[in-house]
Amino acid sequence: MEKHKKTEIYLAPIQGITNKVYVDTYHERFEGVDYYCAPFIKVQLPKLAKRKRKKLALPEAKQNIPLIPQILSNDSREFYQFDQELQELGYQEFNWNLGCPVRMVANKKRGSGLLPHADRIKTILDEVMGNLHCRLSIKTRLGFTNSEEVLALIPIFNQYPIQALIIHPRIGKQMYAGQVDLKRFAECLALSNHPVVYNGDIFNVAAYNTLQKQFPQINKWMLGRGILANPFLPAQIKGWESGQTNKLERIIQFHENYSSQYEKILSGPTHIVDKLKEFWSFGHHVFEEGNSFYQQLKKARHYDAYKIMVRKFFATQPVVRDHVSVNSMDFM
Question: 232 with 252: CB under 8 angstroms?
Fold first, then answer.
């Protein structure tokens, strides 16, 4: 559809879930995501640990997956180290996480915990911008303790050649509870000189349409839990209904690929079951019978029992919802 022609969709970084396994398997089976923002990496000087570097290896390049790594940092030296390693791996852009609301992170003045410290943010940008090989984008919240904090930050961001500014219109202390603050977001949009990406509570096409009408100047959108609950959502937003045939079969194939990848990298059937339950905590929403199935699945303790339950569920030919109706509280 013409009105969606220029819409660009990012998959949000969700720690522990939207990792390399998820991105690889999702990109193979579903359509509509233009960029994948990887969950943050905490840089350790003087060099990334082998396991962290492995997370950033680029088999994705074979599939042309547009992956954007993310740094969680309050130290310009870590930026230089991360930038150097990413350049060696073939990346051209990374993202600075100024939005993580987790208390253990924020207490260390990282993620959203750095937002009240505008001077420190400016110092880091002064030190690194112009000296990086990769482009830099920023993902932020409105603040940590109050939404006025962002008003001091936007003029600072405007001073630098930032690739994009991704804004989640909550404060850090909210975590994911409460309503997004669209009034404050509108103020940020008016102040920013950079391309702004909206992020927050886009769980279905109706929510997207409402936001798109309210902010018609935005064509970049970041979706997280909405995609985990309904992997067809990006294509639905773009009006690509013709590419949505055989929905159940595509979900089955996605699950098979996803679980087989974790069989290779996780040790012990209990760890695999726990990881796949995490997947279903979001994924069950796309099925009409999904909630009752998920409640049963949570009782599985062994991988063999898990596989039997999933196989039986898929064999019943469960109905895939055309439109998934969820809200932020469904993921608490």
Answer: no
With vertex at residue 6, the alpha carbon angle to CA 180 and CA 196, rounded to the nearest 5 degrees, is: 40
pLDDT, residue 1, reads 35
88 and 43 together in one domain: yes
**Sign of the dihedral defined by the CA atoms of residues 43, 46, 48, 51, in that order:** negative
Distance, in Å, from the CA atom of 330 to the CA atom of 332, rounded to the nearest integer, reads 6
CA atoms of 221 and 62, how far apart (whole Å): 25
If one counts the domains in the chain, the total is 2
pLDDT at res. 184: 98
Give me the percent of the chain exceeding a pLDDT of 70: 91
What element of type H or E holds 157?
A: helix 149-157
Domain extent, residue 91, equals 2-243
Extract the residue ranges of the chain whose pLDDT is less than 50.
1-4, 58-62, 243
DSSP string, 166-188: EEEEEEGGGTT-S---HHHHHHH
pLDDT at res. 324 = 87
Helix, strand, or coil here: 239? coil
The burial of 16, by beta-carbon neighbours within 10 Å (0-12 exposed, 13-18 middle, 19 or more buried), is given as: exposed
Q: In whole angstroms, how far apart are CA 71 and each of 102, 133, 187?
A: 15, 15, 26
Q: What is the pLDDT of residues 41-68, one digit of tens each?
A: 888 776 665 655 555 654 444 457 899 9
Same domain, 157 and 110: yes
225 is written with which tokens? 């839990």
